[in-house]
DNA sequence: AATGCGGGGAT
DNA sequence: ATCCCAGCATT
């Protein structure tokens, strides 16, 4: 065994967090927590985990649910493909694996939404198998301990870290070790202002010795942000509201929203009303514009959404429009993007 | 190897 | 503003 593991485990026993998914070895709950926590902080995901386990205590109940209900419970958490994959994977567990989770990473990896990280997490934490997890915390901690200069977001870098992480693993208690390493990264070896002064590994941290802690890990990735202009038509007709389900390969897939007109840049209402898709929706009806709400800019990781909501009232709907209408009171049953949720809370009661 | 996918918190 | 977070799927 290496020097690192016992120190990490000792620190974890004293300073680790008490989290609900650490109090079970049920692979369903561990899998669920891991999917919720993909690219998501513990503080943000905790409430979702509690609500999901309350509503869906086992994989069968999750498999039996509708995708819309799962998306509604997922609303606000982001990366909605996780929710759709969660549903599909639950059905595969029931249908293909007889309701029992497989233990080996290769089999887990075959489930939708389960990649290298989640497969290793479930295999080690639920089944005690010796697989090291590799997530953002592990990259950072190892890059610092060994002062690794190779960028983590490249194939070569990834291979180095896979090897390093696996070589350090405590194969006697892989699940506890993995959680200890991640907690260590989340609480002590943080991205900014790590607490090296109270770090039990300071004595063997090569980056600390070299003064490069703030430079590790090295990443080469650059993100460019696209701007988009969304114009929503909030159409009310006799207590009913028009909603559409987002399809295709775009943001918010599977969520509901008002009928949307997108433009390449800023646009005013007359320009929208002249479009064919607008006239298809409202052409013949006696509609009137009763309000315009310019939403605050909505920032996603790779997109900035400029959204405006046009409130429109009409006494009658075309057949095409009527097919999209739901009762105003039922709008709350549909999962909507945060942007629309804010609008509904702020401007619509 | 690159790209797209959310939303929130920390700095 | 920028970065990051218990990553994954697609191209």
Automatic annotation (TrEMBL):
Pfam families per the UniProt record, alphabetical: HHH, HhH-GPD, NUDIX_4
EC number annotated for this UniProt entry: 3.2.2.31
Domain HhH-GPD as annotated: residue spans: 36-187
UniProt entry tagged with the keyword DNA repair: yes
Cofactor section: [4Fe-4S] cluster
Reactions the enzyme catalyzes: Hydrolyzes free adenine bases from 7,8-dihydro-8-oxoguanine:adenine mismatched double-stranded DNA, leaving an apurinic site
Cross-referenced PROSITE patterns: ENDONUCLEASE_III_2
Free-text comment on the cofactor: Binds 1 [4Fe-4S] cluster.
Keywords: 4Fe-4S, DNA damage, DNA repair, Glycosidase, Hydrolase, Iron, Iron-sulfur, Metal-binding
Purpose: Adenine glycosylase active on G-A mispairs. MutY also corrects error-prone DNA synthesis past GO lesions which are due to the oxidatively damaged form of guanine: 7,8-dihydro-8-oxoguanine (8-oxo-dGTP).
Family named by the database record: Belongs to the Nth/MutY family.
Protein name (database record): Adenine DNA glycosylase
Organism: Alistipes inops
Taxonomic lineage from the root: Bacteria, Pseudomonadati, Bacteroidota, Bacteroidia, Bacteroidales
């Amino acid at each position: 065994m290496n020097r690192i593991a016992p120190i990490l485990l000792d620190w974890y026993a004293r300073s680790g967090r008490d989290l609900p998914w650490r109090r079970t070895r049920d692979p369903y709950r561990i899998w669920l927590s891991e999917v919720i926590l993909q690219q998501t902080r513990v503080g943000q995901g905790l409430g979702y985990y509690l609500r999901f386990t309350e509503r869906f205590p086992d994989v069968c109940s999750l498999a039996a649910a509708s995708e819309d209900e799962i998306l509604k419970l997922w609303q606000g958490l982001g990366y909605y493909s996780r929710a759709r994959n969660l549903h599909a994977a639950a059905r595969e567990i029931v249908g293909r694996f007889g309701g029992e989770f497989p233990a080996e990473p290769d089999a887990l990896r075959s489930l939708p939404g389960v990649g290298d990280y989640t497969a290793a997490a479930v295999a080690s934490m639920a089944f005690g198998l010796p697989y090291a997890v590799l997530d953002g915390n592990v990259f950072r901690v190892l890059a610092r301990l060994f002062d690794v200069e190779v960028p983590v977001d490249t194939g070569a870098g990834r291979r180095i870290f896979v090897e390093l992480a696996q070589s350090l693993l405590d194969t006697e208690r892989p699940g506890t070790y993995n959680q200890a390493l991640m907690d260590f990264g989340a609480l002590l070896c943080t991205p900014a202002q790590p607490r090296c002064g109270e770090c039990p590994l300071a004595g063997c941290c090569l980056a600390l010795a070299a003064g490069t802690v703030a430079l590790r890990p090295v990443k080469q990735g650059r993100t460019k942000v696209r701007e988009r202009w969304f114009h929503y038509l909030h159409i009310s007709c006799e207590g009913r509201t028009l909603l559409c389900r987002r399809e295709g390969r775009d943001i918010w897939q599977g969520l509901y929203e008002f009928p949307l007109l997108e433009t390449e840049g800023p646009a005013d209402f007359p320009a929208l009303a002249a479009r064919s898709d607008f006239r298809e929706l409202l052409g013949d009806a006696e509609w009137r514009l009763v309000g315009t709400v310019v939403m605050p800019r909505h920032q996603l990781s790779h997109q900035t959404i400029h959204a405006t909501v046009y409130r429109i009232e009409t006494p009658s709907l075309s057949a095409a429009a009527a097919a999209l209408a739901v009762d105003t009171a039922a709008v709350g049953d549909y999962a909507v993007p945060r942007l629309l949720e804010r609008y509904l809370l702020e401007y619509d009661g």
